[in-house]
Amino acid sequence: MIKRFNQIMQCFILLILINPAIADVVVIVHPQNPINSLTREQIADLFLDRSKSFPDGKLSVPINLVDEDSSRQIFVKKVLKRKTTQLRAYWADLIFTGKGKPPKKVDFPEDMLDLVSNNPSIIGYLDLEDIDDSVKIVYRIKN
Amino acid sequence: MKRWLITCALLLNSLIISSGAYSESTEELERRIEKIEKELEKSKKKSRVYYDRLSGKIDKVSDSIKLNAFATAGLTKSDSKVPDYNGIDNNAWITQTDSVLGVQMGFQVNEKTKITTQFVSKGGDEAHNTRTEWAYITYTHNQHVKARAGRMRIPYYMLSESLEVGYSYNWVRPPVEVYNLTSNNGELFDVILSKSYSRLNLNLQLFTGRYADTQQAPIGTLVFESENVLGSILYGNYGNFSGRLAYIGLDFTSTISNPGVQSLDTLTKSLGVGALQPNEDYAYFSNVGLKFDNGKLQIMGEYYQFDIDDTLLNVYRGWYLMGGYRLGSWTPYLSFSSLSTHNNDSRETAIAALNNIPGPVARSIIFAEGVPPDLAALPDEQINEQARQIFVAQIATPSALTLRRSFNVEQETLSLGVRWDISPGLALKLQADQVSGFEGGNGLFTTGADANGVPNELSDDSINILSLVIDVAF
Fold first, then answer.
1. Among the partner residues A55, A96, A99, nearest to B165 by beta-carbon distance
2. How far does chain B reach from its first CA to its final CA, in angstroms?
3. What angle do CA B455, B456, B461 make, to 5 degrees?
4. pLDDT in tens, chain B (474 residues)
5. Rounded CA gap, B281 and B343, in Å?
6. Rounded to an integer, what distance in angstroms lies between the CA atom of residue B280 and that of residue B175?
7. Which domains does chain B have, with CATH numbers?
8. B286 Cβ neighbours under 8 A, 6+ residues apart
9. Which residue from A minimizes the CA distance to B63?
């Protein structure tokens, strides 16, 4: 019985060890953007087009990753706290009334990094593993 | 033995020679492969550059033209004794009432200027079929100032501009008790000023314009017109809360196709008790709307009132409250809405004036073409009295019925429904409505009329409607 238990425990430990650690998702801006940190609510406001500027009043341009991206799925769930179907209904209202539009999308993390590191107005998000010091972290989504 | 050795040596020799030749050809092959690889790399780079340029061009095109569309297909039926309610039939499932097809195209002319066009076709029989065409230019000066000009809908309500986009809200259709003022063909100019205070985002929309619209009302075809519409709307959001305050003033002209109502209008105007066909009379509309949505719980409510100076037309107060709760892809919701006219007194005043019409006035109307010979010998007072009695019986009494049944509107709807989000952009909704509280009037139902043009009385106390729709947006 004890032997059996040990076997199970070993399997369990092994599972934990081999399970690929999912890195945190971070919200990023250009290093020259004076904003050093944002709250979850502030980020949600920008990505839901409720607000069009950073807290200092400067224009903000949010950029999304494509729907299939795992970082985007974490971002939508933990920061926007919405489901993809719900977001579609939310955007349908804003698009057809002309009151707002969803952020533009990029296909790859490299494109996101490229855009954020080149434009102080852009705000995006990426897996922590995919960033370098060409961008500044303003919020960290703990996974 | 010797022979064998020679053979072996020869074989070995030939092997060595051939392997040498083999090694030679391998080197050459490797060189060739290297060459091919280099060429491949070059052409890859070329095609990458070409691809980047091409996709850049595609991006630019797809960035400057945006196409969005939405559609609703519906089935609905009522259990009313009255055949028609907003196009809803009482003995057959009909598809037209809620069916809509819309296409919106946005064309980004340059960084600041955008042209938006929208075409909406709403299903229904000829009387209920509406087509809307919008086209306007938006000039975005910066994130604080924006101006629009062109054909669009007057934004009376919170959902005015997305009324046909069923996918964007929970109901099968927004409550008719509130959403009963539409203006499909407005020409507007507006300026929207936006300002943020921390997380509070406020927008002030100031607009001016004009509109003309035709609407099917229980009493007949109504044609509305306003040459001067002036409005101010304050709307904003704070996190999950959003709200709206609107005040719109307009000069209001309307005509009704019903001949009975037309002659009644002439009469009430001459008696000084109000008009049924206002002519450039001042009208004002106010609306307050609130919405909360935290992703799970959704609460929404709106109140409005519409007034027209010195009118016998029905001027309304209406409100609704809707609550929904998302459980995965299912959203059950409950909604209550109420509509009432708040100028019933003015119609009672008019009815009293008609019943107490002065004899000489009644005489001038009833015996307009001369007093009949059999009465001509009577004294004036008696002729007047005769005319008054005929007037009360033939004009005042049916007019009172018309005014009370068709213009005193009271109605409530309790709706219970569920929205099922099948996949992004596709939703199915099932909704049951119970409409009641008519208080002796006909509510918003079309009951038909008798030989004198008097609307029939609504015999139902409560009417149930069941609707099923599929909404898409892409």
1. A96
2. 90
3. 125
4. 455 555 555 555 555 444 444 555 778 888 888 888 777 776 665 665 555 555 555 555 566 888 999 999 989 888 887 666 666 776 677 776 778 899 999 999 998 999 999 998 887 555 556 677 889 999 999 889 999 999 998 899 999 988 889 999 999 999 999 998 877 678 999 999 999 888 899 999 999 999 888 877 767 788 888 999 999 999 999 989 999 999 999 999 989 888 888 888 988 998 889 888 998 999 999 999 999 998 899 999 999 999 998 888 888 999 999 999 999 899 999 999 999 999 999 999 999 999 999 988 899 888 888 888 888 888 988 999 999 999 999 989 989 988 888 889 999 999 999 999 999 899 999 999 999 998 888 888 877 777 777 888 888 889 999 999 999 998
5. 16
6. 29
7. 58-342+409-473 (2.40.160.10)
8. B246, B247, B248, B304, B305
9. A104
B245-279 residues labelled b (16+ CB within 10 A) or e (exposed) = ebebbbbbbbbbebebbeebbebbbebebbbbbbe
Q: Do B70 and A96 touch (CB under 8 A)?
A: yes
List residues of A whose CB lies inside 8 A of any B CB.
41-42, 44-45, 50-53, 55, 57, 59, 80-90, 92-93, 95-99, 104
Query: Hey, what are A8's tokens?
Result: 């199970």
Contacts of A83 in chain B (CB under 8 A): 295, 326, 329, 421
Q: Does B333 touch chain A (CB under 8 A)?
A: no
- Within 8 A of B70 by CB-CB distance, chain A residues are 92, 96
| Sign of the torsion formed by the C-alpha atoms of B195, B199, B200 and B204 | positive
What distances in angstroms separate CA B208 from CA B149, B152, B199, B227, B233, one per listed residue?
10, 12, 30, 10, 12
- Local structure of B52: helix, strand or coil: helix
Report the alpha-carbon distance of residue A50 to residue A103 in Å, rounded.
12
* Residue in A108, A123, A39, A78 with CA at minimum distance from that of residue A136: A123
Alpha-carbon Rg for chain A in angstroms = 19
Helical H runs in B73-179? Answer: none
Contacts of A41 in chain B (CB under 8 A): 199, 239
Please tell me the distance from the alpha carbon of residue B417 to that of residue B466, in angstroms, as a whole number: 10
Residues of B with Cβ-Cβ distance to A87 under 8 angstroms: 424
Domains of chain A and any CATH numbers: 23-141 (3.40.190.10)
Nearest CA in chain B to A67: B424
**How far is B242 from B137, CA to CA, in rounded Å?**
26
Q: What is the DSSP letter of A53?
A: B
Query: CA nearest B66 in A: which residue?
Result: A95
Chain A CB within 8 Å of residue B424 CB: yes
**Does residue B423 belong to the interface with chain A, where contact is any CB pair within 8 Å?**
yes
Using a CB-CB cut-off of 8 Å, the residues of chain B touching A95 are 68, 104
- What residue type is assigned to position A17 of the chain? L
Query: Burial level of B371, CB count in 10 A (0-12/13-18/19+)?
Result: middle
